Amino acid sequence: MVRLMQEKENAENTIASLQQEIQVLSRMHEQYHERKETEARQMEEHLAMRLKEAEFLLMQSEKKVEEIESVSQLKSQLWTRKANIFQSFMDNQKLSIKDIRISSQSIKQEMFALQMKWIDEISSIGRELKGLVDAADNYHKVLAENQKLFNEVQELKGNIRVYCRVRPFLPGQDGKTTIIDYIGENGEILITNPFKQGKDVCRMFKFNKVFNTHASQAEVFSDIQPLIRSVLDGFNVCIFAYGQTGSGKTYTMSGPGTSKEDWGVNYRALNDLFDISLSRRNAFSYEVGVQMVEIYNEQVRDLLSNDIAQKRLGIWSTSQPNGLVVPDASLHPVKSTLDVLQLMEIGQTNRAVGSTALNERSSRSHSILTVHVRGVDLKNGSTSRGCLHLIDLAGSERKNAHVPYRNSKLTQVLQSSLGGQAKTLMFVQINPDTGSYSETISTLKFAERVSGVELGAARSNKEGKDIKELLEQVSSLKDTISRKDMEIDQLLKNKAKSPGSSIDRNDSRQQIRRLSGTGSSEAECEDNMSDDGCSVAGTEYSVGGASEATAERMQKAPSRIARLFHTKNGQPANSKPKPRESALKPPGRTTSTGGSQATGGSLVKPPKRR
Ligand SMILES: Nc1ncnc2c1ncn2[C@@H]1O[C@H](COP(=O)(O)OP(=O)(O)OP(=O)(O)O)[C@@H](O)[C@H]1O
C-alpha cells in the first residue's frame, strides 16, 4: 500500500508536472499561435499591397502595350505609304529614263540633221565672207570719205567756235534784275544797259550759239561731241571757258557735282573719247596719255609730278614729234575715263598743296589738262596724233595786265591748239546781274572779236606711209644741210684768216648753197621775217621732219593767232602777213633758244610792223 501510495503519489506528482508542462506548452502554443496569426495578418497585408502593385504594373504594361501597338501600327502605315511613294517615284523615274532615251535618240537625229545643215550653211557663209572681205576693203575708203565729209562740215562751222552761256541767278538772288533782254535761236544775245535810258540802251552780240539759263549740261555738250571725234582723227582741239569770276566756268567745264547729269564738258568729253575709241577698236588702235599743268604767275608747274616743289617747266616753241609742247611735264598713259579722273584729282590735290589760299589761287591760275591721243590705222599702219586741251581759265578780270596775251605762258602752251591746225571752242560765261554789266560787256566784246577771227581750215596730224617716207627724206636732207653748213662756216673762217681775202659771207654761202641745191636764200628769209615784224629772227619754224604743207600751216597759224590777240589789244586785225621763208630752212640758221623765246606759233611773236 505504501508502495502503492508511493506510486500513487509519484504518479500524482508526475501528473502535476505533466499538467504544468501542458500548461506551459499550451501557453507557448497560444503565444506561438498569436505570433503566427500576427505574421499571417502582416503577410496578408503585404501580399495585398504587392497584389495591388502588381495589378497597377499590369495595368501600366497593358497601356504601354496598347501604345506601342498603336505606334507600331502608325509606323507600319507610314512605311507602307513611303514604300508606295518610293515605288511610284521609281516608276516615274523608269518612265522618265524611257522618255530621255527616246528624246536623246531624237536629239541625236536632230543633231545629225543640224550638222548637215551647218555644213551647208558654213560653206555658204564662206562664200558670203569672201564677199564681205571685198566689202571691208571698201570700208576703209568709205570711212576716210566719211571723215573727210565730217571735217568739211566742221570747217563750214568754223574752227574757232564761241558759245555763250548765261548763268542763272543763284538761290537768294531772286529780286535781282537781269541785263539779258533777249536770246535768239541763232546765237544772238541782246544786253540792256541798266545805267542808260533811251536809244543805245541795248547792245546785240552774235555767237555760234547762246545757251540760256535753263540749258542743261547735256544740251551744252551735245554740240561739242563732233569735236571730240576730231581728236581721234588727229586734230588738236582746245576747249576753254572764259568769263569773270563766279560766271560759271567751273560749272560748265567740270559741273557742280559727281552725278552723271551734273557732269561738265570735261567728264563728258573724256567719256566720249574713250567710247568712240572703243567703237573703232577693230579699225584703229589708240594710245592715250595725259599731262596736267598749272600756270600761275607766268610759271608752268607740273600738277601730276610726284615732286611737289617742281621746277619751272620749259615750253617748246613747236611741239615735238610726239606732240608735246611741255615735254618735261610728266605724261601718264591712261586706259579709261576713270584713269583720267583719278589723275585730275591728283592734279587738283597738287594744286591745293602748292597753294596757301586755294580759292584765291585757282581763280588767278589756269589749269590745263591735255589728253594726247596717238592712233594707228590697223590696216595700213598710218598714224595720227591729236590732242585735247581742257582748260580751267583764271577769272577774266584777274589777269595780269602787263602780260600781253600773245606773250603769256598760256598762249605758248596752247600754241598748237590755237593755230590753223586746231579746232578751238570757247565758252563765254556771263553773269546776268546788273552789277556785272561792264565786266559782261567787256567779256562779250572780247568773245565777239575771237569769234570773228578766221583760223583757216584745221588739219589733222596724220602721217601716212608716203608722208613718213617724205619725212625721213627731209630729215636726212636736213642732216646733210647742217653738215654742209658746218663745212661752209669752217671754209669761211679759214678764208677770213688768210690775208687779202674779202669775201662777202652771205654771197659765198648762197653760192655754195645754190650749188648744193639746198633751197631759199638767207637774205630772202631775213627780208620776209623783218617784214612780218618778227623780231625773233632765226627762229626755227619747222617741226623736225614736217612736210611742206605742214610748214606752210605752221607759218600761217602764228600770224593768225597774233592777230587774234592783236585785236584784243584794240588794233586792226585784217591785214594778212606776208609769206615767210620755207619751213625747211637749214638748221644752221636756227638760233632756237628753247623755252619761251622760241616761237613755233606766233604766240610769242610781236605784232606785225606797220
Ligand atoms: N548754269 C548754271 N546753273 C546753275 N548754277 C550755276 C550755273 N553756272 C554757275 N552756277 C553757279 O554759280 C556759282 C559760280 O559758278 P562757278 O564756280 O562755276 O564760277 P567760275 O566762273 O568758275 O568762278 P571762278 O573764276 O572763281 O573759278 C556756283 O555756285 C555755281 O554752282
Descriptive overview:
- The chain contains 14 helices and 13 strands.
- It is elongated.
- Residues 400-405, 464-468 and 500-610 have low confidence and may be disordered.
- The chain has helices spanning 2-157, 217-222, 225-232, 249-253, 265-279, 337-353, 358-364, 409-413, 415-418, 437-452, 465-497, 505-516, 522-531, 548-568, and strands spanning 160-166, 180-183, 188-192, 202-206, 209-211, 236-242, 284-296, 299-302, 332-334, 366-377, 383-392, 422-430, 461-463.
- It has two domains: 158-462, Kinesin (3-Layer(aba) Sandwich); 465-604, no CATH class.
- With 610 residues, the protein is α/β, with parallel strands linked by helices.
- Adenosine-5'-triphosphate (ATP) binds next to helix 4 and helix 7.
What is the CATH topology descriptor of the largest domain? Kinesin
Main sheet properties: 10 strands, mixed
Query: Which structural class fits the helix and strand makeup?
Result: alpha/beta
Number of strands: 13
Q: Write the H/E string, N to C.
A: HEEEEEHHEHHEEEHHEEHHEHEHHHH
Organism: Zea mays
Family: Belongs to the TRAFAC class myosin-kinesin ATPase superfamily. Kinesin family. KIN-14 subfamily.
GO molecular function: ATP binding; microtubule binding; microtubule motor activity
GO cellular component, one term: microtubule
